[in-house]
Specification:
Elements lengths: L1 H18 L15 H12 L6 E9 L25 E9 L12 E9 L5 E3 L6
Antiparallel strand pairs: 1-2, 2-3, 3-4
């Protein structure tokens, strides 16, 4: 009983790569701003102490395709605007003050999402509860 099962599993392993479907990538335009420049713009837009924020994501995509790496259960209504234009999306986690904790035990609790357009215009995206 074990030998036929092992042979079947081996055959499936050998045949499975041939059954995979590949899809070509869509045309992705090159960004006008480098990653370094986009990060500098985002940090300037935040204007906070670097120890109070943590970078968790840098994405180059249109707003309609962007998926935040972290969420607290709400949505970003501005992601539906200008859905075809590629932008940099820079995601930070922020320390939110908790009065019950000492300063050295504060945790990252808030998400700040910044959209940077090709012309260097940066916007902190407003967050809304559904």
């Amino acid at each position: 009983m074990k030998a036929p099962l092992l042979i079947l599993l081996l055959l499936l392993q050998l045949l499975s790569p041939g059954m995979a479907v590949t899809v070509p990538l869509p045309d992705v335009p090159p960004p006008a701003l480098s990653v370094e420049r986009a990060l500098a713009i985002a940090e300037k837009t935040l204007g906070r102490n670097p120890s109070e924020i943590m970078l968790v994501g840098v994405d180059w995509c249109p707003p309609s395709k962007f998926q935040p790496r972290y969420t607290t259960g709400g949505s970003y209504p501005d992601l539906e605007k200008k859905s075809g234009e590629y932008c940099w999306f820079i995601t930070f986690l922020d320390k939110k003050a908790d009065p019950t904790q000492p300063a050295d035990h504060q945790k990252f609790r808030e998400i700040t999402l910044i959209r940077i357009q090709n012309d260097g215009t940066a916007h902190i995206l407003p967050f809304g509860r559904d």
